[in-house]
Each structure stands twice: as C-alpha cells, then as structure tokens.
Write a structure and sequence with these properties.
mainly alpha, about 70 residues
C-alpha cells in the first residue's frame, strides 16, 4: 500500500504540483453549472472552492486505486 501511495503521489512531487492549480480551477468552474460570465470569474478567483477539493480528492483516490490494483508489485 505504501508503494501504491508513493507512486500515486510521485508525479505531483516531482513537478511540484504545477498543473494542480489549473485542474482545480477548471473543475470549480465547470462543475459550478453557472453562466459563462460567472465561470470566468471563478477561474480568476484565488480561493479554493468545494468542487475543486472534491475533484482533487477523487483524482488522488483513483490514482491510488489504480496503482494498488496493479499486478506489477
């Protein structure tokens, strides 16, 4: 399990999580189901929304599950 967790976090540790901010902003805007003008405001906002946190947690859980169920260990 530790190896699966390490492999799941490795891309983010090596790159410094450079793309996670954009991923979280996009998830916040897309899942908000608001008009286009409001989505653009959400993309420029520096605060983290609840949809971003849920999407990031889901991303981490799915990548951990993928590495944990891999048969190369």
């Amino acid at each position: 399990m530790f190896a699966a967790a390490a492999l799941a976090l490795m891309p983010y540790l090596l790159t410094g999580g450079i793309h996670l901010d954009g991923y979280m902003d996009c998830c916040d805007a897309i899942f908000s189901r608001r008009p286009l003008e409001k989505k653009r405001e959400i993309l420029k906002d520096s605060h983290v929304g609840s949809f971003a946190v849920i999407a990031l947690a889901t991303l981490f859980m799915f990548s951990f599950a993928a590495f944990a169920s891999a048969s190369f260990f």
